[in-house]
Structures are given as C-alpha cells and as structure tokens.
C-alpha cells in the first residue's frame, strides 16, 4: 500500500493505492465525516488483481481544508478528481461512491467517462427548488453548529441520527472505530463541506441521468427506506442501470457488511460487458 499526498489544483490531496500495477482499477469515494479509512475492511476482501485508489475528499481526512467554502463546490471537486486521475495516468476504472462520495461520483460521471459506476446510498440531489433551499438553510445552521460547538458535540449528534440507527447492531469495536474516525475530522473542513457541497447546495443532477449510458449499479440497504426510494426513481431514468437491495443493512452497506460489499464490487469490476 502506498499512502501519499499529491498537489492538485492548489490543494494537497491525500490518496492511498493498493495492489499497484494490477490491470483492473477501482476508485472508492467516502461519505461525509469519513475518510479513506472507511474502506479498509472492504479492501481486505478485494482480490489482489484489482488496484484500489482511495481519496480523502476535500475537507476530510488528511486532504486540505480550505477556508473558503466555495472551494468545496461540486464543480471544483470534479476537476480535482479529474486532475488527480490525469496525474496518476488512470483512464479506465470503476468509480465507486458512498453517500456524499456517491453524489460526487455521479457528478463526475456526468462530465467525464468511467468504465463503470457504483453508487452506494447516493442521490442526484434535490430537483425541487423549494426543498433545496430548505435543505441549504438547515445545512448552513448545522455548519455553524460545528464551528460553535466543536467536533465532539457534533459527532455525538451525528452518530445518533436515524440514518445510522442500523449501525447500532454492528460490533461495538467497529462502532468505536467509526466514532474515532469522525472525531479526527476538523471543524472547518466539515463546516465548509456542508456550506459548499451539501445536498441543498449542489445542483440537481436528475436531468443528467439519461445521459449516463455506461453500466451503473445502484446499491441500497433494505433498512434505508429513504435511499431505496431514491434508487428506485434513479433506476427509471438511468438507461443502463441495475438496482440491488442488500438485506439486513442500512445506509452504510460497506461498513455493516464489508465482505458482501466487496464481493458485489468485485463482480461488477470483473464482469465482461
């Protein structure tokens, strides 16, 4: 495994590469409050003939935390990823994104080609302008709360929202690891991520779905009814998509059942078109 910082478009981006030189390649993008560490268990179950690239997205992990939230806009992050792929000379790969990382993966794939796309518990944003404004206001308040109350207070709140209720059933040691990963984040990074790249701020990509023609897999957990409904709607627009519901898990499938998640990803990567 190679863990390095690379300079990309005025920021320092932290990446990790596993099985360097393998023919098949996959990129894993994490969710909000997380980092590339979230994929550790999944990577352990992936075969050695697949090269894996994980990225700490802007504001998270060891990647830069710019002070201006405009630098976190999805358009900026798309170009960050593209510059990174050009720098490491990756032109063919499967792009996997979870939640926030899934929104970025989808946005990237709407502009630049990928071989295959896997979206875990993801959405194209909010199509309704009024809903988007309400969400933007709520996320702005939450962003200020992070700055004013600090990371620990925010994590205490965040880990108990309904979206993550199913994680109460995973082993306690893993729950602690998830909490520790969240606690290592920075106030400014998370706050600006919400201000610049929340679901309420991001442009809706619903009208772009019909243009994404390469193979796409939508993954949702059966206990996550909200994102199951979103995936159902997305599947009706995407011309080359399949939707798979994983039983017994909620929003973070890769955390709650990493072995099964890795098996699904492996099957998609190695499947002949």
User: What is the overall pLDDT average?
Assistant: 96
Indicate the radius of gyration in whole angstroms. Answer: 17 Å
End-to-end Cα distance: 29 Å
- What is the β-strand count? 8
Number of helices: 10
* SSE order, one letter for each helix or strand: EEEHEHEHEHHHHEHEHH
Strand % is 15-25%
Strand order of the largest sheet: 1-2-4-3-5-6-7-8
Low-pLDDT residue intervals, each spanning 5 or more residues: none
Largest sheet features: 8 strands, mixed
Q: What proportion of the residues is helical, as a percent range? A: 40-55%
What class do helices, strands and sheet pairing give?
alpha/beta
* Principal-axis shape: globular
Report on this model:
- By secondary structure, this protein is of the alpha/beta class.
- The chain has 10 helices and 8 strands.
- It has helices at 40-45, 74-87, 100-109, 129-149, 151-158, 172-183, 187-197, 225-237, 253-256, 258-270, and strands spanning 2-8, 11-18, 24-29, 50-55, 94-98, 116-120, 216-221, 241-246.
- An 8-stranded mixed beta sheet has the order 1-2-4-3-5-6-7-8, sandwiched between helices.
- Helix 4 crosses helix 5 (151-158).
- The radius of gyration is 17 Å and the shape is globular.
- The mean pLDDT is 96.
